Amino acid sequence: MILDSNKVAAHNDGLYTAHKNKLVFTASEIAETESIIKKLIDFQIAIPSWALGTGGTRFGRFPGGGEPRSLEEKIEDVGLLHALNNASGAISLHIPWDIPTDRNAIKALAAQHGLKFDAVNSNTFQDQADSAYSYKFGSLQNVNKSIRKQAVQHNIDVIQQGVELGSESLTVWLADGSCFPGQLNFRKAYENTLESLQEIYEALPSNWKLFLEYKCAEPNFYSTTVADWGQSYSYVKKLGEQAKTLVDLGHHLPNANIEQIVSLLLMEDKLGGFHFNDSKYGDDDLTAGALKPYQLFLIFNELVEGMDARGMNHATDLGWMIDASHNVKDPMEDLLQSVEAIMIAYAQALSVDRKALEIAQNENDVVKAQEILQNAFRTDVRALVAEARLRAGAALNPVALYRELGVRDALIGARGLKTVATGL
Amino acid sequence: MILDSNKVAAHNDGLYTAHKNKLVFTASEIAETESIIKKLIDFQIAIPSWALGTGGTRFGRFPGGGEPRSLEEKIEDVGLLHALNNASGAISLHIPWDIPTDRNAIKALAAQHGLKFDAVNSNTFQDQADSAYSYKFGSLQNVNKSIRKQAVQHNIDVIQQGVELGSESLTVWLADGSCFPGQLNFRKAYENTLESLQEIYEALPSNWKLFLEYKCAEPNFYSTTVADWGQSYSYVKKLGEQAKTLVDLGHHLPNANIEQIVSLLLMEDKLGGFHFNDSKYGDDDLTAGALKPYQLFLIFNELVEGMDARGMNHATDLGWMIDASHNVKDPMEDLLQSVEAIMIAYAQALSVDRKALEIAQNENDVVKAQEILQNAFRTDVRALVAEARLRAGAALNPVALYRELGVRDALIGARGLKTVATGL
Amino acid sequence: MILDSNKVAAHNDGLYTAHKNKLVFTASEIAETESIIKKLIDFQIAIPSWALGTGGTRFGRFPGGGEPRSLEEKIEDVGLLHALNNASGAISLHIPWDIPTDRNAIKALAAQHGLKFDAVNSNTFQDQADSAYSYKFGSLQNVNKSIRKQAVQHNIDVIQQGVELGSESLTVWLADGSCFPGQLNFRKAYENTLESLQEIYEALPSNWKLFLEYKCAEPNFYSTTVADWGQSYSYVKKLGEQAKTLVDLGHHLPNANIEQIVSLLLMEDKLGGFHFNDSKYGDDDLTAGALKPYQLFLIFNELVEGMDARGMNHATDLGWMIDASHNVKDPMEDLLQSVEAIMIAYAQALSVDRKALEIAQNENDVVKAQEILQNAFRTDVRALVAEARLRAGAALNPVALYRELGVRDALIGARGLKTVATGL
Amino acid sequence: MILDSNKVAAHNDGLYTAHKNKLVFTASEIAETESIIKKLIDFQIAIPSWALGTGGTRFGRFPGGGEPRSLEEKIEDVGLLHALNNASGAISLHIPWDIPTDRNAIKALAAQHGLKFDAVNSNTFQDQADSAYSYKFGSLQNVNKSIRKQAVQHNIDVIQQGVELGSESLTVWLADGSCFPGQLNFRKAYENTLESLQEIYEALPSNWKLFLEYKCAEPNFYSTTVADWGQSYSYVKKLGEQAKTLVDLGHHLPNANIEQIVSLLLMEDKLGGFHFNDSKYGDDDLTAGALKPYQLFLIFNELVEGMDARGMNHATDLGWMIDASHNVKDPMEDLLQSVEAIMIAYAQALSVDRKALEIAQNENDVVKAQEILQNAFRTDVRALVAEARLRAGAALNPVALYRELGVRDALIGARGLKTVATGL
């Protein structure tokens, strides 16, 4: 389904006056809105290939209808999202869930939708029907060298597929760990994992990055072999300059100060990118910004400050990806809400008065520092995000337009009510 | 120190044009702003008598200067806050820290500042020099009947003092609990506590409420005898209609859904009131709204919905109190920030489109329900809160005016740099 | 597969001398071991019908071999466990996963293995192929009356099936809740749930109990409609005397004091029973006692003290059930380990010197109270548990005998390597 | 107060027969008990100088009587503990709380009691009356260079004092951090702290170690500048070989897998030592092993395995210290209980069948691995710990002898009922 640009224009026309008024007022409240809008236009958040279908939990899954039945349809769906919000211009493949059969056709299709191929993901947490070995007791950490070899080779294969699509990074998230005390020797699990990662790292093209994601628990419930930022950091330091830590917002123990972790990883030149989502209890994979929008802002506050301090390009020097599971919402609407929340947090962070904040910090003026951050957060920046979309030809209100156009019904009509997206 | 109303007016004049523009714009975004502003004017949040001094932790305390040296000076400080924000029109005494010596003079002083006496608090977590018995192993729960009697009598004395000041509620927060398994018999501790509470309840005037606060931990680190909302609920159900549960936002286990608790207590007619603060790790007693402003909004969202469903008066039918500790900020500025955050959350909750939300809920339109709540939260309502202050003769920007007037320096001049506020 | 009693005897003969020595020594350390052994013989822990197969997480499932393919085979497996440990003499059916087709045959089969039918479980967290309505947005809480009716009827059907099998209790665990703020009205969800529960309660035979289980999160990640013990308590108080709260050890927020909850529910005559498992992060469903054996002991310490205070029968007055998921272990071995850990905790609790503990508590002798509990926990009671098995004709070391007999290989031989147990 | 060795002997005589029987039985259960007993005799746990007095919380303090009034009396108290258990042969000074005035006399007194001076601790979380600058906003992290210099100099002074007493390590625990978002720039706080630590490190004698302790929160409640093991690790890697990470068991976020952290720090040669205590909610500083004895065992399991893998000396190559606060117990009894729990965990870890465990791990035999660890934990090793004391001339039951001798009453007689120990 291709979005008709006339319909976008009609939608925008209807909202234009109210938008313009709001934009003018916003510009009276925030300095340098033009600069902010330009950065918002450039900012793109990749959509994982599995996220177009309804997710589930171990207790079940309640699928919606019209879900994509193939990688082609997934690309079409991401293309539609990108047409609606001009902020989802990339797709992140999970392999072996989404292996292109005809790479040239896939690349052409993506290009047609203005999409790039972001990081490729090498899933080794499920067994495939044709695999020689099982990952029941881990992949890169496995006590069995043959199993480690199989997992290393899978990663190398994934890199190769990514190269052909134009990806430039590999995300390694490992389910490896243990469910019970005594199950594994932590040190040997670390050493096996490091050895495996080194073999993968050696296969990495020189312009690629390897993102090593950490997670405190699940699906292993006693230990995880890359369990926290410190463990990921200790691996990527040993691997080399192209290896970086990837932060998934839902992968921390309760009460963790994620923004501080982000700041320190940036300082160490070891931050690779993000998996955005929100959570209350564990790795809940809820819509980004749905529960802790202030935390999301504080994270972007560190990102903007830290990237600027290093002279980094906001749009391209880190990997930005959604990693949420869409259990009770239409996945497309959920993704639009996630992207919107991320753009708002980014816009708020861009509007922080950094000079005043630095002065307040140097004077230990805690009250003032809080006022500055909360002012940026409390100010309504949505008109800036909408304006960025407007200028790029996307919709002022993507969710509203998605509904006006009856996209889901059209997809159900085209694909059927009961479809099964590959992946989770 | 009495705030000069001319100086308030001058401050407001300087900010008026920008404020008015913002107010007009806000009124274009939110329906029925007049009704909201009126509710904001009526809404008052009590200040605890100990909160005017710098707090500390078990690791130390770093006092500021000019702290109040007497109950009279505390009332003056609250009076100043109220003059600045017209939202702190009550003081909540902690006894035995703040026992009036001349009640009539104290009442007159409070009246002069437009202050009421909110809930009185019966501290039984410290020993007093003249006490016969120690609370080392608890007060109302104590295995020693004589100690329980002492604690019960203290509560009854506190009620009597409250009666004479015009208070109409008693807040009972118990440090009672245990630090080690086996230390106490949970059932007997409950039964002792219930018996003690019943004796206190019998001494309660018929127009009073008894608020029973719960807390998961600290200062006891294994068990607390009123540890969660369910335990408080089970006590207050047995006590009678005048007994209610008090919710302190910092007293929950990690990840608790406080807004759901609030909704259910309201449903059961067992919600008494609030102690506002914010926290990240435990009972951190940080400035309200400093870390989780969306949670604060969601709580007010339940309060507005639930109180309206029961036909309750927002301003008077529940107890609203700050309970934060001001360790690294000027306590007065901290209190102004807390009150501001609470008023903003209340205003946001008042602006929720409840009819649309109810429809979305009835249709299981989760995306829409989120849009409605987040729209209310993302919309900048600060002009409404400021307008409420303006109409009541208070300051458009209380913290700014507090600083312009050099209040802290004046207090240091009057009271000295090294003073010690009674209480924590 | 039926356990050959000669093989049990041969196994026991080989271990007898060492066992006897240990038993004699244990009897020199613990008072009244005979009384303890008798209680251990009587104590039975029900096995859920789904637990004989390998569990999984949302990330995948790694099945073992020889899993039961039918309810009949599940009963055989539980029968085998019971023959090995004489402590698993009941099975708890999850419906609609395990609906008997020929009830008389099933009852005869169970009787042949010495098994009773414990609580029946009414799963409403998955959609069935033939269902008119979906539980995507909840069952008993649903805003749609027809969906609530379907779920109520399912519960009533489950009761009916239980009646015919000889069960005497219904366990209601609800996945109902919400994933996002605004998704549901907490009060109305409560009221709908209460109304539904009342309809189910009315269908309850007079000799039955209704167990209402609570859970803080999962599969809903913002709110759960029966989220904590206080919420369950408030429902069961309204329902009537036959309604009780069921405690699953993994369903609490981090750091919750479960033993205190147990004590208070017993005090209120509202404790119904247990789902045993262990966990570190969330509802991890690990082998009971695998991570926090001291907590398990402390819970049994409260159970023994509280049940004795009420004159309750340990073996029959509460429901004792395993509720763990066997992801990386042979499910049969895992269940044997869980039951062993529970029996040890029970034996330790029975050996606590209660008179001395009461004296220590009355004297606030915290050090002594800890010494008493830790002495009971540190003393090795395994010989008592083994002796209870020996006297009942079961194995001194069930896991060892299970392995000696090559049970899993035999099951694989009989059932095949790739089988799928119904249920999770 | 000096323990009369005749009284120890008399105490031991009374318990000897029962002890011997138990020891013989234990030796029938555990291999190589002689080797274990020898290691237990050598194992010493340092007592912090502040721990002889009753601790408190921010809510108050309930002192006992007879508390030491001087460093001399503290040394005497530790000497008494060591005479009772032969496992507390070191004292760890907190400075400026406990600065020796006459070093030679203090060294002689310690030597008389058989005590060494363990790590010295440089407290910079409180202001001293004679300090030029305040640590309200941090010490080594402070934005003010002069304040950092003061804190660095204090650390260097502490090293100097330690050198003269014979200490060989400095423990740096920093309260530094922030209470509110925006209060500090995380990167600059890190850089300031690193620079300060480097200056301290340069002053370190070549035979010394610098232990950098981490803590997730408290007394700062938004961020801590050395917040987790990863942050400590990143500092000590930059500092050099003599810098190591110190693990305090209570300083982690909820549910952290501490034993894995311990294993990895050992692997990296960056583990320095331990502060032992137990906790349920936060940094509760309860008696070691009082709540999570299995966790304590699992930590020692990693320590024994990891130290042996590196050929380290258990007794001397890491720092072993108590760091608990004795709020509701006699501090001396509490310390005896902590040390006992630690020795038990160590003995259990020494008794693990490591060869069998390694085989089980290599076969992914999770059930077997759990059996091996739980067998070591469930076996009663207390006779080994007691035998180690007996052989070293200490008491078979230290707490019992402490009570038999009426030590506390004697101390109250000598020192008075109301004394104040320096420190917390």
From TrEMBL, chains A, B, C, D:
Keywords for this protein: Isomerase, Manganese, Metal-binding
InterPro entries reported for this sequence: L-rhamnose_isomerase (IPR050337), Xyl_isomerase-like_sf (IPR036237), Xyl_isomerase-like_TIM-brl (IPR013022)
Transmembrane helix among keywords: no
Domain Xylose isomerase-like TIM barrel: from-to ranges: 100-285
Pfam families, per database record: AP_endonuc_2 (PF01261)
A GO MF label: metal ion binding
Superkingdom of this protein's organism: Bacteria
Residues making up the signal peptide according to the UniProt record: none
Name recorded for this polypeptide: L-rhamnose catabolism isomerase
Organism in which the protein naturally occurs: Flavobacterium glycines
